[in-house]
UniProtKB/TrEMBL annotation:
GO terms for cellular component: mitochondrial large ribosomal subunit. SUPFAM superfamilies: Nucleic acid-binding proteins, Translation proteins SH3-like domain. The keyword Ribonucleoprotein applies. The keyword Membrane does not apply. Keywords: Ribonucleoprotein, Ribosomal protein. Gene3D superfamilies: 2.30.30.30, Nucleic acid-binding proteins. This is 39S ribosomal protein L2, mitochondrial.
Amino acid sequence: MLSRFTANCVLQSRHKTVFNILPTLCGQVRCKTKQVEKPKPGAGIQYRRIVHFKDEYTIEPLKTTHLAGRDPVTGRVIAKGIGGGIKQKYHWIKWERDGPTEGAPQEERVIQIMDDGCRTAKIALVGVGDELKYILATENMKAGDLIRTSKFIPRIPVRPNEGDAYPLGALPVGTRIHNLEKNPGFAFHFIHAAGTYGTILRKFDDKVVVQLPSKREFAFDRTCMATVGRLSNINHNKEHIGSAQRNRELGNRPRSGLWQRKDGRFGRKIRKLPPMSVILPPSRKGVEPIMLTIPL
């Protein structure tokens, strides 16, 4: 039966699987075909909000649609931990830092530091020439600072300032970085959360070893761009929510019904210990007298 079943399983395409099962039961042939849609890898969906991006990059705050953990088509609850929350405008971050490949680095000026409700770290409005863009702000960045961007890798490592963007091969060992590219020429992929940073550990051949916030070490190409410094809002993980209403404003659904006190499913009812008891020795039975009689 197993060989007959496997012979009838046909793979039609990469994303569709069709099973043709032809079991023979009591001399009768039954045919059943089921078509399964396989999801494409890497197409994750965020069930918190939908951002309505425009065709071209803009610093204008973008409109969002809150999903509250529900599927946008069916309306069913998919992510149970998400719900409600204050509506926020989305600020489009420019994830690429483009600079000259030769000569002096490009200088950009920080215009404003602001909070963004859609991410944990603060953001900075930066201007260069006639272009304005948003980037992630570093720990000590303030309005009026000059930051530099370059793709040139010199023979001797540079001495960067906080907020500068250079290739990994141009930075000295021990530098704290964030906004790290996974592959050269792609958008910044790693280290976006508030207060996080990566550390350049060593170099070999054309690779640079970086320790990520998870303490894992990865070897990247020396031409991958990275931004110098630690991300802002370093006390984000130490903030005290303080009330259930504040947690609802952050967009977290209450975990009601999980901890049940009396039946002990996710907790045990607290009871007093029984009072002290004294262990007594076992009682000995008394010896019964034996009465003997003699007939006279």
